[in-house]
């Protein structure tokens, strides 16, 4: 069938401000619950003599998922008018940061929830900082439990002003700030009488308006070279297309050397005939119209949209090694299929995910996040993470073991592919 744009969101906010309740509501309001689920949970609550809570829904689905009962709910998701919204688990700051930075999970957008009575708390501010750290630019703020403040517009405006100022300072402009009662449903899928003064989008509308991540095959071509093979006297360059598309006849540049050639033929890999353009996710073998020096670690791109070659990269990393990372450290960096030795020349920032606050930046401890500048022994072709989530990631090894992973934030020097 037709694929609907998918957006992956994470819901963050101070404990008890209503995250699970909002998810339960959203599942219900968007008709995404399995038949009878709601009724069953209501019945169970009644039998146990406890009031029904919307958060039970999320608990129940998560339990089923963990126990593998419901095969098709490996992830919790719901449908808005034009989007599939997938909920990314945020079990804790450290895990969430690690997963996001190392690429295990990826959120395109976030919902930040604030209890209308409690207002903006320290934890709320730290969550803003977390989103900033991860480069999540689309953030919808919901001011929940408006029923607890008699749906006061003045109280809403107060919180709106405070959180907006905080987020904007962090470089994040909220896409919407929405007054709701997750428990009663106001503002979730409907602008009820209680919030008649509010003219903005509901939560469902705000989610529907999120911009999905650009599909990988619409990004510029990036084919990191895995290997070169001799096959029937032909030299075949094999690799996986990480982004973009290619076809026979395309003019390409081999980075970082900047040598230009044309694609003569495209094969599937292992060698199988293919025809037409091949796109992101496919493993291919290509032959070129001339003999050029090319090796594992090179990146093939189109001449008009080549990555930059650089020996100096600024990265935001999650550190996993028991030995803290310090300035001067000699590390091995993997970028795509390229491996090169590198030196840590500066540590600009170190952040303790538990506190979500910067700590003295002399070194980066295990399970901490840091911003570092590294000098590479050999030039590499790289993209900033914000331009390309596939080629904008790096892995750091120490003594042959993975010691950290992260995002390429900035590429210093270098230039776009040239001959
Ligand atoms: P979480 O820790 O952020 O997931 O918060 P929960 O969703 O578990 O909610 C915490 C408590 O707040 C629960 O007792 C909910 O019933 C209550 N709650 C959530 N939303 C609302 C709301 O809109 N109005 C009121 N009055 N209570 C709410």
From TrEMBL:
Domain Tr-type G: 4-216
Keywords associated with the record: ATP-binding, GTP-binding, Kinase, Multifunctional enzyme, Nucleotide-binding, Nucleotidyltransferase, Phosphoprotein, Transferase
EC number: 2.7.1.25
GO MF assignments: adenylylsulfate kinase activity; ATP binding; GTP binding; GTPase activity; sulfate adenylyltransferase (ATP) activity
Catalytic activity: adenosine 5'-phosphosulfate + ATP = 3'-phosphoadenylyl sulfate + ADP + H(+); sulfate + ATP + H(+) = adenosine 5'-phosphosulfate + diphosphate
UniProt signal peptide: none
Keyword Ubl conjugation among UniProt keywords: no
Domain of life: Bacteria
GO biological process: hydrogen sulfide biosynthetic process; sulfate assimilation
Pathway given in the UniProt record: Sulfur metabolism; hydrogen sulfide biosynthesis; sulfite from sulfate: step 2/3
Record note on quaternary structure: Sulfate-activating enzymes, NodP and NodQ, may be physically associated.
Function field: Catalyzes the synthesis of activated sulfate.
Membership in a protein family: Belongs to the APS kinase family. In the N-terminal section; belongs to the TRAFAC class translation factor GTPase superfamily. Classic translation factor GTPase family. CysN/NodQ subfamily.
Designated name of the protein: Adenylyl-sulfate kinase
Protein's gene: cysC
Location of this fragment in the whole protein: 19 to 437 of 641
